[in-house]
Amino acid sequence: MAFLQTKPYKLHNDEGQCLQSLGAWVTLKATSEQTGGVFNLFEVLCPTDFATPLHIHYTEDVAVYVLEGALAFFWGSEKKVAMAGSFFFQPRCTPHGFRVEGDAPARILYMTIPAGFDRYIIEQEQPDHRSKAEAEAARYKIETLGPLPE
To answer: Which parts of the chain have pLDDT scores under 70?
Structure first.
């Protein structure tokens, strides 16, 4: 990945490209281009029934900060509950996932290091992405293991 010369910028609360991924609303706050490939930052609004599958990122670390609501985080079969103000770090190659706990939606900051995951999220918005989903995941080195444990 070529690193670009970056420049300072700011976004207001309601700014950034907004996309839908797995049923959550994802706002891109820091793209690969804006950070010179160093990291991505997303603000994610997760509805009450939201859950990711258990999956592995092979090329990026993931950091999550819970702004509102509650989440159950999983590392394999290990479960940790996170309330607003909680922070989780998931090193690459760690099976992980999360789901919203309780009756309220959750809002999180989701960071991937290095950048590149934003391109995967953007591709998920394409009309024909379902037919290419496995190829896209393989290209971005993400493996889906199945549903989260109960």
So the answer is: 1-5, 126-138
Burial class (CB in 10 A: 0-12, 13-18, 19+), 58: exposed
Residues 6+ apart with CB under 8 A from 79: 72, 73, 149
Q: Give ∠ CA 37-17-63 in degrees, rounded to 5.
A: 50
The answer to whether position 145 is within a domain reads no
Task: Establish if 46 belongs to a structural domain.
Answer: yes
27 falls within a domain? no
User: Residues 84, 49: contact at Cβ < 8 Å?
Assistant: no
| pTM, full prediction | 0.87
Q: How many domains does the chain have?
A: 1
ω into 114 cis (within 30 of 0):
yes
**Domain region containing 118:** 41-127
CA nearest to 43, candidates 70, 62, 24, 69:
24
Asked if residues 98 and 24 have their Cβ atoms less than 8 Å apart, the reply is: no
The answer to whether residue 56 is domain-embedded is yes
Domain harbouring 47, CATH code: 2.60.120.10
